[in-house]
Amino acid sequence: MGVQKRPHDDDPLSRVLAPPPNETAEERETRLRLEAEARQISDKIDEQLKAERAALKKNRPVKVLLLGQSESGKSTTLKNFQLTYCRDQWEAERASWCMVIQLNLVRGINTILDILSEEMAGVGGSGGAPPPAVDSDVSDDDDGPGPGPARTFSPSSSTFSGKHRLLKLRLTPLRTVQRDLELRIGIQAGADISDHFVPASPPGSPVLGATRKQEFFVRSATSWKQLQGWGAGEGEGGGGGGAGRKSKDIQMRETADILAGCAEDMKAIWEDATVREMLLRKGVRMETTPGFFLNDIDRIASRSYQPSDDDVVRARLRTLGVQEHKIKFASGPAAGSEWCIYDVGGSRTQRIAWYPYFDDCDAIIFLAPISCFDERLAEDRRVNRLEDSFMLWKAVVSSKLLAKTSIVLFLNKCDLLEQKLLNGVRIKEYVHSYGDRPNDLEHATKYFAQHFRDILRKHSPEPRPFRVHMTSVVDTKATAVTLSVVEEGILRDHLTRADLL
Ligand SMILES: Nc1nc2c(ncn2[C@@H]2O[C@H](COP(=O)(O)OP(=O)(O)OP(=O)(O)O)[C@@H](O)[C@H]2O)c(=O)[nH]1
Ligand SMILES: [Mg+2]
């Protein structure tokens, strides 16, 4: 009778681990006890490794991406974080924002002068075609924008007087001021057109062609501040001090002098009824940054001007590429944690730069400016801005790379939406599916939120919560409250994900 082979006989590892033959009961008991102890130690090491991995994840900075189309309010949201949590840096950079604000003001006036010149020369045309409509019923699968409202634009009834000619002449020095400021800030001409002053007319139209402006941007968030020698980088190779600094002081004084000298004329042209009618007729949007500063010319153009917190929040400088900002939270729900917030350029040509940041991203704050239901993209005048936000949202929520990323939606510019609705702009003329719902803020936000929710439900690779906030991020007090709720949620998700590692 042959000896029966045990399963481990051929396996060297099993042979080593197998209990010795002829093991006594006492030996067996000792062996089992030792084995149990070894298992316990091994389990403990596994747990320790898992905890270390989780701690590493917990301790590494929380990565947050601010996404959304151009002018959706991403950089303004970032400023809200900085205003609340990076007070020292905010104060250090306040002076460097002065030039950007002056530039916002001067560009506003120069743009008015450009349009005025065209009108006076009789080349301005009669106004813009209405923007395209959104049919957001199933916005992500739509063929494209609908026909838009049957709004007609009457030909110019403006009659320009000697007063306008004189103002134009007297404000000529602002051309040089604009060039100087752009040079000092280090602004490069962008490939995209201006986002503040583009009339609502189709591409190639005489109006658009004639008033097309190059958008301005700087390459890095901090370099332009440091170049001035006034920002956080001063004294660390920031370029401040010495003869360079002196000439910068002189330049600053010269700019302030010219602005103070032009203040009355700037006010006169901005407040002129004929000019206002012209801007309205040409569909020139000035309600955001330029309007804010143009309504306060006396203060901004004074020689002793110091930007307020609100001014800095409102200052507009287009973001180029992806800019990283580190915030160490000393207070609030995220106290003790460090966050890397990435502020991206939102125009179509910039979006390709977002993708490398999707990997390893903990959270996205997506900004959709819902006041833009009747506006077109500055970079592609055929595309309705709300439609673009829906498409962008769909692309983000359906990304497999972002399947585990927390996503928070800000339905932004609610203040502008409310104003627009109060001014009688009717949503259903642009968003046909809005139907006969009341044309007010409450119903509009509810309706738009539902569309974003539907897109998330339909396209998210995994079920995930729909977190939405109605925001006006220029309102820093209200935004601080929203951000604390958002921070808490993002941090909770971050720690939960770390524990699941
Ligand atoms: N009234 C109002 N204006 C806003 C709001 N959010 C942003 N703005 C203004 O809209 C303009 C664009 O805001 P930004 O934060 O620069 O936009 P962005 O998304 O960073 O734009 P890009 O850098 O071009 O991608 C600025 O003039 C802001 O002051 C809002 O909620 N209400
Ligand atoms: Mg920006």
From TrEMBL:
Record-level GO cellular component terms: cytoplasm; heterotrimeric G-protein complex
Residue ranges, annotated region (Disordered): 1-29, 122-160, 229-248
Start-end of Gly residues biased regions: 230-244
Keywords: GTP-binding, Magnesium, Metal-binding, Nucleotide-binding, Transducer
Basic and acidic residues bias: start-end ranges: 1-13
Binding site for GTP: N412, K413, C414, D415
GO biological process, one term: adenylate cyclase-modulating G protein-coupled receptor signaling pathway
GO molecular function annotations of the record: G protein-coupled receptor binding; G-protein beta/gamma-subunit complex binding; GTP binding; GTPase activity; metal ion binding
Coiled coil: none
Pfam families, sorted: G-alpha (PF00503)
SUPFAM superfamilies in alphabetical order: P-loop containing nucleoside triphosphate hydrolases, Transducin (alpha subunit), insertion domain
Cited InterPro entries: Gprotein_alpha_su, GproteinA_insert, P-loop_NTPase
Amino acids binding Mg(2+): T319
Top-level taxon in the UniProt lineage: Eukaryota
Protein name: G-protein alpha subunit
